Amino acid sequence: MNHPYQDIPISLPDFFSWDSSRAVPVEECGEPIVSASYIPEKILTSPQYFIHGISGAVADCFVRRSVLLRLIDAANMLPKGLRFVLVDGWRPRMVQTSLFQKFRSELRGKMPLLSDREITDLASQFVAPPSVATAHPSPHVTGGAVDLAIVDENGLLLPMGTEFDETTEKSATDYYEKKLAARERLTEEEEEIMINRRLIFAVMTRAGFTNYPDEWWHYDYGNQNWALLRGERAAIYGVSEPKFRWRLS
Prior knowledge:
Helix content is 33%, strand content 11%.
């Protein structure tokens, strides 16, 4: 596939850490959370945690209003025939807790000799610790984090090298960039994957998002991750949720 981003390498900052992210102050702007499911010509929604039966997950993908507008901007930069598929956005705390504990349990089964602290640190690499604390909310709890991929004109996912939520080193956004920099020979398939990652990275960052370096699918706007990586004084999104008229809580 030829597109104007195929020769743009991914450039990721090397100073990201969860402690640094959580240290960024939050000044909530009060922007509403909205559904992203009403513009399928640009963005398809496939709420994976609801589909997989995760407790507390909702059957839609919600994001902050400005996040949706920037997603549309990014979608407009995609080559003709390609669309985003949004697999997760705003996340209830119950879902965040379920995912974190499930991943901790998986790691504990694989590495029984590690301490609880070591298990938690490893789990945090791919799943943010559940938190709705005003000072350091989990990224998805704010409505400012999105997980997404790209589909072609037939609705088939472009190859990205891993499945969504795969917890291996191959999920790192620059995994294939590093292979190339180390002068390792990439296969034709790996080159295609690298180009596809460059594409999604290019359009999303040009639309104002930042990427979480360990996950090619995860992008942020307005939350603490974004503020840290953009050098902003404060995050503009804290804990929030959509307005559910009939939801019992």
